[in-house]
């Protein structure tokens, strides 16, 4: 299934994508895609049995919201690309260790919502990433059991303000990662049964129609089950939690200081079989 939410911000309804790429309304069968429903096997089983052709069609062009309402956590993995760490000259973490950080859930927006260029923005960067959506609560999860805790996958653009992240004298990522609209998510949650091999997906990102990132998720140093198991050693994972798996080469700094995003720029992100995002950079509304 491809789970999505559509409608104006704060008024989104749940939907499913049919085989012809049309949105079907399922609000009579589930009130929303939130942690409680995403962790309810009965609800998901009921949705999987629906005959999509009998459901109301949503008007084409309707805004898509984030595919999850009120997720508890947005966890990110850093330096998880072999090519990226090589390009940056960063030594890989010790075997079995990972860099993880939290991104504010208030940064989440829809897949086609605008990217905000804020009052403090100086070096706005993009990062195309595959994200995991948790479907079952767990802590101290064994790697062999980790897939049971995965509901599905989605796209995320882990936007970063590099000046605030790296050039203001502190050693944490929060200020440069948590700005509003800094985590476009979606367009769908693609349930794991539809993703044959999440470790072999093509990921591409364009800025103003120029290809800037092109990689395969096989480049990830740590794959989905490794990451879910590792993170669960430190805190409980709940249904609806999101884990973004990291990005590969091709960030703005790689292309040159002049290539950081500016108002008017357009960004497109695509992960084969998972979905496509399109965003425009605008000045943050006052």
Walk me through this protein's architecture:
- It is a single chain.
- By secondary structure, the protein is α+β, with helices and mostly antiparallel strands.
- The chain has one domain: Alpha-Beta Complex (Fumarylacetoacetate hydrolase, domain 2).
- 14% of the residues lie in helices and 29% in strands.
- The chain is built from seven helices and 19 strands.
- The strands form four sheets. Strands 1, 2, 3, 4, 5, 6, 10, 11, 14 and 17 form a ten-stranded mixed beta sheet that branches. Strands 8-19-18-15-16 form a five-stranded mixed beta sheet, with no helix packed on it. A two-stranded parallel ribbon has the order 7-13.
- The protein is globular and about 55 Å long.
- The mean pLDDT is 96.
Architecture blueprint of SSEs:
Layout: E1 2-6, E2 13-17, E3 23-25, H1 35-38, H2 41-48, E4 64-65, E5 74-78, H3 82-88, E6 99-102, E7 108-109, E8 115-117, E9 124-125, E10 128-134, E11 150-157, E12 160-161, H4 162-166, H5 174-177, E13 183-184, E14 189-191, E15 202-207, E16 210-216, H6 224-231, E17 242-244, H7 252-255, E18 266-271, E19 275-283
Parallel strand pairs: 5-17, 7-13, 8-19
Antiparallel strand pairs: 1-2, 1-4, 1-14, 2-3, 5-6, 9-12, 10-11, 10-17, 11-14, 15-16, 15-18, 18-19
